[in-house]
Design a protein that fits this description.
This protein has 2 domains: 195 residues, Aspartate Aminotransferase, domain 1 (Alpha-Beta Complex); 259 residues, Type I PLP-dependent aspartate aminotransferase-like (Major domain) (Aspartate Aminotransferase, domain 2). The chain contains 20 helices and 17 strands. A 7-stranded mixed beta sheet has the order 2-10-9-8-7-3-4, with helices on both faces. The chain has a 4-stranded antiparallel beta sheet with strand order 13-14-17-16, covered by helices on one side. With 488 residues, it is α/β, with parallel strands linked by helices. Helix 11 links the parallel strand 8 and strand 9. Helix 4 crosses helix 14. Bound molecules: pyridoxal-5'-phosphate (PLP). Pyridoxal-5'-phosphate binds next to helix 6.
């Protein structure tokens, strides 16, 4: 047989800037290799993300769902006949069992004992927060204490507190880190009169700066007789929350923020003893055991049932169980490790970006170190003369690059006001002088009167983020280097 010797041609692909960055990243963070399972998952379950060239950096807004979550949920619905769980017929009982199974899975996921805690299904975290706010037994002697860094749904409880004559106090956060000054906490807790019902509310993780406020505060507040509402909406998606360890009275969250699907379901995880203190301002179908119209009596249904108004979102509740099991199979530790590494790299790179005149491009709000922070970063871009780029312009340019991020104050005005150094007097003047207050008019006013920008650009990493996502954001950020706001 004749053999032909073919010349050996070696093809050297030039090393791209991405390849270089990727290999440096891997040497810097060897632990990233332990999270490879997420890359395989991204290929298999979230192919649409890369097929369509999306750079998804809005996990604090909402997480993404896997293909298999949808398939499993639809298969379940196709296989069974499910009726409204309020009846007692076979299809209803089958659904009731699924709903109860959903509650057990949630308790188990957060390591909450069913003897101590109940799960109340709500439409979202805000629905859970409102349940507590409207039923908390505030009196004229009570105090509602909350961190300035809070989502508006937690701020909104102040309306219920005020209507019942309770006092309201905010604990400030300290810029630039936007953490609490822990030395001042006992002073704030002393504001609560010992015999009155007093409520402290704070987020386990800020949806503005990513700060993780210390969960030890729960115990400190309990020691002084306070009830504690822990808003876990932006913490739970990338951190393990052990309810038995921290013992919050109320925990609020939305499931789409953890695993993307379904929307429309959140929960209030409530300690039975704390739930017993609440006084519901009304009753609804499903939440009462017995009502009389002619004698106008009613008896609330026991435990969680007394807090679920009308029919729960029963067709979607099994999808919550599917989602929690899915996350558990991946392991929250793997997700957490990846998010921490990507965030650390992102912070390091952002803070190194400098214009030719040596001035920094990025001002990052919140901690620069990874202790006590999660994967949410709020920032502003500045030009070489120190003039801030309008966040809406940043958003438009990001949209063109198919980067999904968020701008504004993210329903967390307190963190934003502290981050930008706006004081109460400046804000009062704005509210009094502006006939139609809007985020845009606030921005214009503060720029004109106090040369301060309001609002920030937020990027957040999560469940299936990868190095390419954060790398592409750095490339995008670099496009602002040496450009002036006026020229743009
Ligand atoms: C910390 C925090 N709390 C509460 C909420 C409210 O969640 P939802 O809009 O699902 O009610 C959010 C939403 O972004 C959040 O980030």
């Amino acid at each position: 047989m004749m053999t032909v010797n073919l010349p050996v041609i070696s093809i050297h692909r030039p090393v791209s800037p991405f390849d270089k960055a990727w290999s440096a990243f891997q040497s810097l963070y060897p632990a990233y290799a332990n999270t490879r399972v997420l890359d395989e998952l991204r290929r298999r379950e979230y192919g649409r993300l890369d097929n369509q060239g999306h750079v998804y950096l809005d996990y604090t807004g909402g997480s993404l769902y896997a293909k298999s979550q949808l398939t499993a949920h639809h298969a379940l619905l196709n296989h069974h006949v499910f009726g409204n769980p309020h009846s007692q017929n076979p299809t209803s009982l089958a659904m009731t069992e699924r709903v109860e199974q959903g509650r057990r899975t949630i308790l188990d996921y957060f390591n909450a004992s069913p003897e101590e805690y109940v799960v109340i299904f709500t439409a979202n975290a805000s629905g859970a927060i409102k349940l507590v706010g409207e039923a908390y037994p505030f009196t004229g002697q009570s105090h509602y204490l909350l961190t300035a860094d809070n989502h508006n749904s937690i701020n909104g409880i102040r309306q219920f507190a005020e209507a019942k004559g309770a006092q309201i106090s905010y604990i400030p956060v300290v810029p630039p880190e936007l953490c609490l000054d822990l030395a001042t906490i006992p002073e704030y807790l002393r504001l609560g009169r010992p015999q009155a019902p007093n409520l402290l509310a704070f987020p386990a993780q800020s949806n503005f700066s990513g700060v993780q406020h210390p969960l030890e505060l729960i115990q400190v507040a309990h020691a002084r007789g306070w009830d504690v509402l822990l808003d876990a909406a932006s913490f739970a998606p990338t951190n393990r929350l052990d309810v038995s360890r921290w013992q919050p009275d109320f925990v609020t969250l939305s499931f789409y923020k953890i695993f993307g699907y379904p929307t429309g379901i959140g929960c209030l995880l409530a300690r039975r003893s704390a739930l017993a203190k609440l006084q519901r301002p009304w009753f609804a179908g499903g939440a009462v055991s017995l009502v009389s119209v002619r004698s106008q009596h009613h008896l609330m249904a026991p435990d969680e049932m007394g807090y679920e108004d009308g029919t729960v979102n029963y067709i979607n509740i099994p999808a919550v169980e599917i989602g929690l099991k899915y996350v558990r199979r991946i392991s929250m530790d793997v997700i957490h490790t990846r998010v921490q590494i990507l965030t650390e790299w992102l912070i390091d790179r952002l803070l190194k970006l400098q214009h030719q005149n040596g001035h920094p491009l990025v001002y990052l709000h919140g901690p620069k170190e990874m202790q006590r922070r999660g994967g949410t970063l709020a920032m502003n871009f500045y030009d070489p003369a120190g003039v801030p780029f309008n966040v809406f312009v940043v958003e438009q340019l990001a949209n063109k690059a198919n980067i999904s991020l968020r701008t504004g104050c993210f329903c967390n005005p307190g963190a934003s006001e502290f981050a930008h150094g706006l004081d109460a007097q400046q804000l009062d003047t704005f509210w009094q002088s502006c006939p139609t207050p809007t985020p845009a008019s606030l921005n214009e006013y503060m720029l004109a009167q106090h040369t301060r920008a309001v609002g920030a650009t937020r990027v957040s990493v999560g469940l299936v983020s990868n190095f390419a996502d954060v790398y592409k954001f750095i490339v995008f950020a670099r496009s602002f280097l040496n450009r002036s706001v006026s020229a743009m």
